[in-house]
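Might you be able to review the protein record set out just below?
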Amino acid sequence: MMFRNSLRLLCANFDKVWKLLVYHILSIGACFGLLCIFYDYFISAGGVAFDDSGLSSMFESGTLYGSIIASGLTAVADFVILFFREIFSNVAIGVYFIIISFVLLPLLLNIGKFVMCEMMYGYMSSCQKQSFTGTYLKTLKSSLIYSLLKTFYSMPFNVLIVLSMWSLTRVDNEIFDYIMPFAFVIVPAIFMAFKETFTAGWAPAKVVYNQNIFKSFMIGMRAVLRRGARVFSTAFVIFLLAIVLSMVLGLYAIIIILPLISPLIHIFEMVMFFSSQGMRFYVDSDTILTPKKLEEVDKIEDAKYIL
């Protein structure tokens, strides 16, 4: 139900998808511009890693079955490891790359997520349309604090996801080569859904109740835990579909899938929060959904948390 309602809201608010996409392009472009200060250094490191990892040989084959997929995924993992080894031959430049790529960029993207949630709150609560720029400026103080804490809070989860993918490429077994494509889809999807379960309620709670960032986190976690299994399973399905389609479509996923997955996740979080709190909301301009009231989904001992 949450997945279906999220899709309905995505279709009803597709203008927001384009706005968020433009913001993502500008954010990525800004970070890319900062990295271009050491353009020659990064290109050189990438070239060395590309050759040494054997990734270039993967493009010589037109088929992707069994061991070929396993070899390709292993080559990608080797490329990443070799690239970081090369750029950290100069520690200062390596640290600069980490800050721009894994701190500044997620920070900017999380601000966009907060703005998206704010706009969805206006639509879901009163079918109101808001401008992206106006909402961005209006919520910048709150979104900046949220985004900064969310970026650092998510780092352990991101490390866990990367380690799970890297560990799969380290398994050296002919039989596992045929299992690896499936494992490479399912395992990351599980960890991504696990991360989503522990972060999904944070931005919606901050947007809806406008409490301080720490109280908003607690409110969001309580909302998620009311429907924990459903939140995890829905997030798992979304990430599973995203990974499968990305592997099938390859580079085309950048154009087709990524612009849709990000707003879909943000909308899913708002749907989850509204549903968990028993709040009525618009799914389109003609339909208002009425979830179960909060006291109907809470346990008796949790009644003290009703807001």
About this structure: DSSP finds 14 helices and two strands in the chain.
